[in-house]
DNA sequence: TCCGATACTGAGCGGGCGCTTAGAGTGCCC
DNA sequence: GGGCACTCTAAGCGCCCGCTCAGTATCGGA
């Protein structure tokens, strides 16, 4: 677990690509509010208030409340995909790359739980067009993990009777971390990442390391 | 996978314990609406309309919209706990009981996805008192699964370095089925249950069956 | 010094929300 | 048959929602 290390860190400059500054502050405020209360329970007045602005200011930078969610979701999914791609294209064997992918993906969900929660659980709040775009990104996420598992099976390292089903389960396990992980809990994101990498290697029937 | 068979079926008479009939129709309508759109995006007018009643009729049977969610959540959690208890108190070894617990729990999440979605993902929409009551039920759910795993470790059937962490992962895997399972998809609840039982046995290091 | 562009605010519009109330319909016990 | 308890509806109250718009402050360039 080293190749994808730098991409799975604590969201180094989070949302740095969002400009200008006011637009980024609004977006960060929206992420926090959506994560705490959910998209539908969050008001535009709440988002603007958290960013220290009047409700009307939001509409200078974003056309609607939904556009905020769309932007958050797309950036988040692109980040998730980048993390998995980095791990999948690593140099080790399938077991090493799968462990790397799982541990960095889990660290992203646990460490950036606020963002991950919005990204993974507010998909249904998007309109049809935006949702379709995001679903395409999710298919790419699935393909990355499936690719590693297929490599392991082809190399004889893994014993996996149902590759698509196991891929689904591995991703499901990682994603659900965003639901239960507690920042004030006893486990650090790194500990959960290591535990989950071990569990996933067992799931694919990789021999003991 | 047989002892918990009858309790994990297709919600045989769903919500049969809710009376009178009008109250049950409203509750079933609320489950569907909450599952489709989420609690906050569902209006009381929508719930009443689905039940074929006027908006005011809802308030004869329930004090608030939140009371509906609370009732749904409590009944659902009690059912989930019953399913796991039945499996945990089965007669086989730890491996058999764990496989039974996972497969029946997964079948409940996949087959009754509508209900399970509300039960598992609308917890935060409850007020503090109701949430505390539900969290107590969830701790009992966790204890049942942890008990089976501990039995397996004590008997030397399982190899589990981190029992609480593995318990968390097993439950997480099952619960997340309610998020991704698609009724129109290619897999039946039974198939997913069997696949997941196998994956979980690998996670706990149980020997091949 | 003035100008236009940009970023923002205060006030508020139309509408839908959760929930209430007055009263009508219905069936059961005496 | 009369009274009552129960169930449900039509109407609507007060509130807050997403979003708009006229107007103000600020600032770089000529």
TrEMBL record, chains A, B:
From the Swiss-Prot or TrEMBL record, give the protein name: TetR/AcrR family transcriptional regulator
* Phylogenetic classification of the source organism: Bacteria, Bacillati, Actinomycetota, Actinomycetes, Kitasatosporales
Instruction: Name the keywords, alphabetized.
Output: DNA-binding
Q: Where is the HTH tetR-type domain positioned along the sequence?
A: 20-80
Origin: domain of life: Bacteria
Q: Which organism is it from?
A: Streptomyces phaeochromogenes
Q: Which residues bind DNA?
A: 43-62
């Amino acid at each position: 677990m080293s190749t994808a290390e730098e991409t799975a860190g604590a969201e180094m400059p989070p949302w740095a690509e969002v400009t200008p500054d006011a637009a980024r502050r609004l977006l960060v405020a929206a992420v926090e509010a959506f994560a705490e209360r959910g998209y539908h329970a969050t008001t535009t007045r709440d988002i603007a208030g958290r960013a220290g602005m009047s409700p009307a200011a939001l509409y200078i930078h974003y056309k609607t409340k939904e556009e905020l969610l769309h932007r958050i979701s797309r950036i988040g999914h692109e980040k998730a995909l980048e993390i998995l791609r980095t791990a999948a294209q690593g140099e080790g064997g399938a077991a090493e790359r799968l462990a790397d992918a799982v541990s960095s993906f889990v660290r992203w969900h646990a460490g950036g739980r606020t963002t991950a929660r919005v990204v993974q659980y507010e998909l249904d709040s998007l309109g049809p067009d935006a949702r379709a775009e995001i679903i395409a990104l999710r298919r790419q996420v699935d393909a990355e993990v499936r690719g590693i598992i297929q490599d392991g099976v082809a190399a004889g390292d893994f014993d996996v009777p149902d590759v698509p089903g196991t891929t689904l389960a591995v991703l499901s396990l990682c994603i659900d971390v965003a639901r239960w992980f507690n920042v004030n809990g006893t486990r650090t994101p790194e500990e959960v990442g290591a535990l989950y990498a071990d569990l996933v290697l067992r799931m694919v029937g990789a021999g003991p390391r």
